[in-house]
Amino acid sequence: AEVAIQKKQKPLPYLKLADDSYEKAVTKTPKDAEALFDQGDSFLQRGTYEAETGKDPRASLEKAASMMEKAIDINPKNAFFYGRLGVAYWTIGQYEIDNGLDARKSLEHAINVFRKSNEINPKYLNGYIFTAAGYLYLCDTQSERGEDPSTSIDQAISTLQKSLKIDPESAYSFSVLGYAFWKKGKYLQET
Q1: In a 10 Å sphere around its CB, with 0-12 CB exposed, 13-18 middle and 19+ buried, how is residue 34 labelled?
Q2: Which residues are within 8 A (CB) of 178 and not within 5 positions of it... i.e. 6 or more apart?
Q3: What are phi and psi of 85, to 5 degrees?
């Protein structure tokens, strides 16, 4: 399905086939965390496609989150599961922001899930980067609603500094950190 999305083909028939295959796997092994997670990840891919094509992805993303939460109930020590669950909530938040909706709840949930991924695996670099990105999206939502975003910006900066202790060469961490400092300067200039 990802290949079809990248080539701009219509992936929906393939996503339906993926859904059917994952459903069979989950039906045959309902306590298999990997099967549940994979089914959830399929719905995450569907939701991402829907968002990219202007459709409301929330139903698919909420289904993704539900399946991933079931996988986490079975295997609560898998940092990657938490990371992808955070992406589902983060993508809901992005959709809400893009459509003028209040994204605070979705983004706060994403941040908490990403933070949990780092509690499980303190060296999981993407957990820190996505946590910081969640804080930066949250600061935009807070600003639009007349709230003070400075705490969210500071949390993003602090989180990215932790990521650089894990990988001092992470270009992505430096890039997001630069954006966080830019946000901080912009906010201070406006106040």
Answers
A1: middle
A2: none
A3: -60, -40
| Long-range residue pairs from 62-69, CB within 8 A, at least 24 positions apart, any chain | 62/88, 62/92, 64/40, 64/88, 65/40, 65/89, 66/40, 67/36, 67/37, 67/39, 67/40, 67/43, 68/36, 68/37, 68/40, 68/41, 68/44
Q: What is the DSSP code (8-state) at residue 7? A: T
Structure tokens at 164: 């650089």
Conformation bin of residue 6: beta by default, left when phi > 0, alpha when psi is -120 to 50: alpha
Residue 12: name the closest of 37, 39, 47, 41 by CA: 47
Which residues lie closer than 8 Å to 50 by C-beta, 6 or more apart? 56, 57, 60
| Assigned token pair, 145 | 């609603």
pTM reported for the whole predicted model: 0.86
Tens-place pLDDT, residues 86-135: 999 999 999 999 999 999 999 999 999 999 999 999 999 999 999 999 99
What token pair was written down for 67?
A: 């399946």
Could you tell me if residue 54 is left (phi over 0), alpha (psi between -120 and 50 degrees) or otherwise beta? left
Longest dimension (CA), the chain: 58
